[in-house]
Every structure is written in structure tokens, then in C-alpha cells.
Amino acid sequence: MMYYNVSFTGAPTAVKSFRTVLPASSKNVYYRDDIGNISTSNLRETEDANELEIRPRFPLFGGWQTKYYIGYSVPSYEMLSHSGQNYKLEFPFVDHSYDNLVIDEAEVSVILPEGASEFEIVYPNYEIVREADGKVKTYLDTFGRPVLTFKAKNLEENHIKNIEIYYKFNPIMLLQEPLLVVIAFMVIFASVIIIVRLDFSISVDENKEARQRVAYLVEELFATTGKVKSSVSDETCELLAAVKAKKDGKHFKNVKKEIDAVYKTLTDEATAVCKKIVTLSPSLSDRVADFTRREGDRKALLASISGLAEKVLGDKISKTTCTEQENNLLAKLYAAQTAIEDSLAAL
């Protein structure tokens, strides 16, 4: 099989090129067909218009057809005007596609912004049929953009006249697409945060569970220590003050017996909790031992305060000496209780 490249020398019945007139402000002009871009064209800019010389891929003889696309951009202010929410779009229904223009049937589709409504059409002085309105969806559209379709037959250069489309459009709709993008990213970020924080593992983290139980036991130990301070330490100090004010031995013995019983109960609870903590986390045994030692120091100081009250009852100590020893013991008791809270915080 052989191929020949033959140069076309021209024939009076063939069309090699033709001229299309575009608006003077047209930019980004392109000329292509189904195959792709066609480079055999020439754009000439003038003050009144831009002339595009179109050369098809092959000469056109009588009865031959070609299909091509021409596109360009123009500033919106030349065809679009508005007052508030009322917009007017005005453009030529047909344009100068080629010299001695004859169009058997023309179909013009106008895509308006999403949210446009209440259309009113002002037609040029020849018959134009409006087809049923449609919808088209592009990127980030929700309910689609309105499409107005018009048809006319048997047109020529005298029919190059403007058609006017009036419609209403709320400018707030311009924020719809940016808001959709923002909401989409927020949903993505929130989903990622939630997914990252979720634990889908089936296995149980024993160390984590043990730490949680130890933390709960330490909170329980804090509560027990607080009860010792309010129900034992404060009550013992108040009992000493009561003995100094009124030497009532019977009252002293009864109250002291109640305080000792409460103290024993709270001490047993604290001891049981400490054993559980050491069992769950042996590495905390030194800190638990430190807490136990400090609790022993507080117990000794409370015993000294009770002993001081007994001396007052037996008139075995002077008032001045009693006050000095009381102040000294209370200062040591406050320091011991602070040290106990610090040892618990270390757990």
C-alpha cells in the first residue's frame, strides 16, 4: 500500500478558508474540531472587531460538510448589567460566522448562574421559538444551573440582532460554592480527628488498664486522707481546745474514743488501698511506703496532742508551757499533712 501527499492548487467550486468576525474585546480565542486544535487559522485584531480566518482541515466542495468549534472570552460588562438583584443579559442571537451568511436552523443555549429565576425574554423582530428550560450541573452545583434554549430558522446577515434576557439573581448565591468547599474540608478534618482518636483494637492493653485502676485507687486514697484530716486531725485539735476551756474528763474520754474508732476505720481502708496499688504496680511500692511513713508521723503527732490534753486534765502542765507545746505540735501536724498530700500527688 502506498500513500501520496498531493498539494491542492485550488478550484473555483471549493472553499479553502472563510472569515468569521468576533467582538473587538474577545480574548483567548480557540478553533478546534473533534480531533483537536486546528492550527491553520489566523486572527487579525482591528479597532472594531477581531477577524478570524478559518481554514478547515480539507477544502470544502459542494455538498461537503465540516464540524468545528470556536470559543472566546469577552468582559461581562459588555453583555451583562444589573441593578440590585435584577440582571440583564444582551447578546447577538446569531453572529457573523462567515460572509453571505445563511443559516437553515440555529439553536442557541444560554446557561445562567445557579439560583437565577423569573426569566423575561425580549426577542428581536423575527420568529424565535423558546424550547423547554433545562438544568445542567457543573462543579459544586447543588440543584443545577438553568439552561434556556432558543431555535430559529432561515436566518441571514440581516438577522444579526440582539436578544435580551432579564432575570433575578441573589448575589449571596456567589458564596455558596466557597461555603461548600469550607464545609467539606471541615467535615474531612473532623472525620480524621474522630477516626484517629477511636481505638479499634480488639486486644486489651493490660498496662493501660492497670494505670487507670491505680489512678482510681489514688483518688480513693486522697478521699480517705481528706476524711482523716477533717474527722480525726481537726476533731483532736478541737478536743484539746475544749479541754483547755473546760476540764471535763468524762467528755474527753468519750470524744477521744469516737475519734480513735473513726481513725482506725480510715487507717484500715487506707492500708487496704495501698496494698492494691502495690499489687497492680509494684514500681510504686517505694512511694506507697513513703506515704505510709508520713501517715505514721501524723498518727504520732495526734497522739502527742491527745497526751497534751491529758496533762491539762491532770494539771501536770502550766498554761504557758501548754500553749507553747500546742503551737509546736499544730505546726508539725500541718507540715505532716502537707507532706502526705505531696506523697499522694507523686503517685
Major sheet: arrangement of strands: 6-7-13-9
> What overall geometry do the principal axes of the alpha carbons give?
rod-shaped
- Computed CA radius of gyration, to the nearest angstrom: 49 Å
Q: What is the tally of helical segments?
A: 5
Could you give a short account of the major beta sheet? 4 strands, antiparallel
Beta-strand content bin: 15-25%
Helix content: 40-55%
**Contiguous runs where pLDDT drops below 50 for at least 5 residues:** 1-6
Structural class: alpha+beta
| Strands, total number | 13
For the record, give the distance between the C-alpha atoms at the N and C termini, rounded to a whole number. 93 Å
Q: What number is the mean pLDDT?
A: 85
Order of helices and strands: EEEEEEEEEEEEEHHHHH
Polypeptide structure, described:
This protein has 347 residues and is α+β, with helices and mostly antiparallel strands. Helix content is 44%, strand content 23%. It contains five helices and 13 strands. It has a four-stranded antiparallel sheet, with no helix packed on it. Helix 4 packs antiparallel against helix 5 (319-346). The longest helix is centred in the middle third of the chain and has 40 residues, at 206-245. Residues 1-6 have low confidence and may be disordered.
